[in-house]
Amino acid sequence: MDEQKTIGIISIKGGVGKTTAAVNLAASFAALGKKTLVVDANYSAPNLALHLGLVKPEAATIHDVLIGKTSIQKAIYEHEAGFHFIPGALNPQPGKMDIFALKKKLKELKNDYDVVLIDSSPTLNNELLSTIIASDELLAVTSPDYPTLSCTIRAVKVAKNKNVKITGLILNKRRGKNFELKTEDIEELAEVPVIARINDDIKVLEALSEAMPSVITNPNSNTSIEYKKLAAALVGIEYKDKSFMGRLKGMLPFKKEKHEINRLVLSNGKKNIK
């Protein structure tokens, strides 16, 4: 097994699709043969379990683990898409929080997984710091509008102040309209490269209603392929796009867009690290 990679997925604005990104990346990593775990670190308002069809966790949750009530191994659930996850308690009890506790607990799993994804709180508080401290690198989720981008810039600044690497931005809920912020403008303002561009796809909501990642329910959609490409790049694997458009781009001299170039640079860098 390669050295474990812990990736925090952050934003400080709700509704941008952070948890959706987490579960789709988890399924994509699993499809690449990577042993993958997703942890719900949105302690105040956890919803990872609901995305995965677990309405009421019967066993332990991340809250039980962090207060020392049970071991982290006993809070792990398996999803049919091939990855594991640790849910939060849907009615968490307020209490004092140790921002270093998550990092300490995840160390117990360092030999069990290739990739650990942390779904963070969308609020600038100690919960977000908990994710940042526990992560080797971070992905920030944003959408192509100024209010969301301003929140993203704040999250990036907090992470940089903690000396945690921001690997890139996931530009989510993109409609391709002229009034949206362009990739280049977002990169300039955030000072972080865009490494995935996810369209606003209603089938993502359909997948949520089925409690499945959309990469499983609609594997050949543009949205799903973008998640698969990002997952592959994050672990330095070449993704072979077998969709019609993917094969067409392979045969014809299509000019790569900015986020595709950024992702290629990222992938090559990961290969060199190996």
Which percent band covers the strand fraction?
A: 15-25%
Q: What is the number of beta strands?
A: 8
End-to-end distance, in Å?
Answer: 12 Å
Helix-strand topology string: EHEHHEEHEHEHEHEHHHHH
Assembly level: single chain
Largest sheet: 8 strands, mixed
- The unreliable regions are none
The shape is globular
Topology:
Layout: E1 5-10, H1 18-31, E2 36-41, H2 48-51, H3 62-66, E3 77-78, E4 84-86, H4 101-106, E5 115-120, H5 126-134, E6 137-142, H6 146-161, E7 165-174, H7 183-190, E8 194-199, H8 202-209, H9 214-217, H10 222-234, H11 244-251, H12 258-273
Parallel strand pairs: 1-5, 1-6, 2-4, 2-5, 6-7, 7-8
Antiparallel strand pairs: 3-4
Description:
The protein is of the alpha/beta class and 274 residues long. Helices cover 41% and strands 16% of the residues. The protein has helices at 18-31, 48-51, 62-66, 101-106, 126-134, 146-161, 183-190, 202-209, 214-217, 222-234, 244-251, 258-273; strands at 5-10, 36-41, 77-78, 84-86, 115-120, 137-142, 165-174, 194-199. An eight-stranded mixed beta sheet has the order 3-4-2-5-1-6-7-8, sandwiched between helices. Helix 7 (183-190) links the parallel strand 7 and strand 8. Helix 1 (18-31) packs across helix 10 (222-234) and helix 10 (222-234) packs parallel to helix 12 (258-273). It is globular and about 55 Å long. The mean pLDDT is 91.
